[in-house]
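Lab notebook: predicted structure, single chain.

Context: the supervisor wants predicted structures on file for every construct in the current expression panel, including those that have not yet been purified. This is the next one on the list. No modifications to the sequence; it matches the entry in the shared construct table.
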Amino acid sequence: MRTSNAQMIAAKDDFAGAPLFRKEFRLVQGHGGPVRADLRATAFGIFEAWVNGKPAGEDVLSPGWSSYEWRLKYRSYDVLPLLEETSVIGASIGNGWYRGRLGINGVDNNYGDELGFWAHLDIEYDDGFVQTVTTDDTWLAGPSATLSNDLYDGQLIDARRQDPSWMLPGYQNTKWTTVHTLDLDPSRLVAPLGPSTVRHEVLPPIHIWPRPHGKHLIDFGQNLVGWVRFHVRGSRGDTITIRYAEEIEHGELATRPLRSAKATDAVILSGGDDFFEPTLTFHGFRYIEVEGWPGELSKESLEAVVVHSALERTGTFECSNELINKLHRNVVWGLKGNFLDLPTDCPQRDERLGWTGDIAVFGPTAAYLYDVKDFLGDWLQDLAKEQQAQGGLVPFVVPDIFKFGRLKISLPTSAASTAVWSDAAVWLPWTLWEAYGDKGVLVRQYDSMSSHTRYVEQLLSSNGLWDQGFQFGDWLDPDAPPQKPAAAKADPGVVATICLYRTATLMAKTAELLDHTDDAAHFGKLAARTQQAFAENYLESDGRIASDSTTAYTLAITFDILPDDSARRSAGERLSELVRANNYRISTGFAGTPYITWALSESGFIEDAYKLLLEEQCPSWLYPVTMGATTIWERWDSKLPDGSINPGTMTSFNHYAFGSVADWLHQVVGGISPAAPGYAKVRIAPKPGPGIQYAKSSLKTPNGPISVEWNVADDLMKLSLDLPADLTAEVELPSCPSFTITGGHHEFSTALPAKALSSV
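Prediction complete. Output recorded below exactly as produced.
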């Protein structure tokens, strides 16, 4: 960033973990009027900034969560329209991720025990003169109306203490104190690559029903992430309490899945007209319980505010099957709820961490639905910093709070790299390269990618297998005991070795793209050795793969580790047999689920893939939809058929990993996939199957918008295709030879299954 003499300042009084800061100043005379005013700000904690009582920007929960030890992001604002002859910069601070509770049974003060604020304002005048206002020991700090705040537990506001005049010139209050400065290495300050977190949709209640003792339950109809806000008038000193949860169980708010997270906001009324919006916290919820509301509570009384990173929607999908459409909407809402400054596993309980395995498999789905190039690129920089600090080990979560060793968790936090999870270091940059065609992400992440691959290379057994040490494996296999989610049918060594093959193969391709010739050769040889070790140790003479599980065959087919067409054919046939024998119910976990429909369709078993997709009995993708889900569940049976919640201690109703099937929906059912990175060339290859009569998909690519629509009737498939001018598409339709077209609107029809193609 540009050189600045701004200092990180802290209040002498902690003010209940929610101090306010202010600085009053006058515009310099004699240089004409101001023509530019750029404010940069960040915090130890989370902040909101104002100039003369007006928000500096639309962001909330800034600067977000990064690996603070190395990367403290700042936000930038154009505040020229807000300046007056005498002006005030104001900021409110909360604990946020910096000092609040983090992690499973988490502890606070992970990054520091003092909250701080940092700001640098440059005001340029007509004649080029620049006036600078920065945080230093001349600022003042004071108490806010917030009495407590925590991301997990919620926010308590005393409206009797509200006084917005603190943000305006001339304010005086004897409770305000001086500040002191904190140590801050300027090299930690970085401009964010990703977007800020902002408010999005506002949802009204769809149903309100009274409960005993003056309480009300409210359903917003959608599992979302954010908070509730409202205007209210009541007796001075009375308290309104809002508790949040994702589900109702036995007629009550289901708070058990939140574990230790209190997820409770409250406001003490002033006796006048109060406005309540708790912006120093966030919650994952569909339902709330309201206690203490004065008078009648109606659907117009309050609203839910959806909060997530400011991402542009790029991809759409719909089809003739409404359950699949609901599944796809659930995937979208799961992404929105978990893409709040970084990709998290879940947004509601005492966790909300950047688990690497979830985004490793969900990345392709995310990159179709939204422009996540910068959002995920930013997070990958944190991954690289955490990895570098741990000698090449990619941690389970990024930012890595497990490294502090202060959390009570059952996982071996000192474990070495793990397949899928640690492989995010390689898989995710490659996903972004394929989606956006920008080598920059590969260049920035190359050291991280290669370091991970070399690290794993040192973990291999003498026989070349990755079969030692802790593995998550096929996490949450539906047949695993509820309290042993890693106890999957698939041999963890099989899973890890196949994943290593994919990682080494992608590394060889990346090295070749970036002209790292020696590395390309090295990683190519590693891939070849891994393939050979797999064949010698896990591939049996009859074509069976060790552990004989759907996930083993799925990964072997999709990641192309099998040595020849005969082995691939045998694996596909055996996978189909297992899927049919299980009555098309899901038998895979985190590792296999994102790829099983791919493995079936690529092996020629498209009907099996469709039947697996469309199954409604638990476990299946559509079972949660039939149970009223509006996001993707963590467990296939997070809610049991009788409506009760899974009794396990780990169950979330907003966990996007199993929603990775949407990538197959987009590319195979919808028919849009890149034939070259960044869709410089596109492949249009929809594969119809039983249960879906038509599908529509669209995608805003770096080379322009693409849309595909097809329908099947009377054994005839009709396809409509729109391409950007000059964009070349490889078109593959059932029973027809492939062909190439360029740009514009095209319509085709083909008889099914006859090999006939006619352009309409």
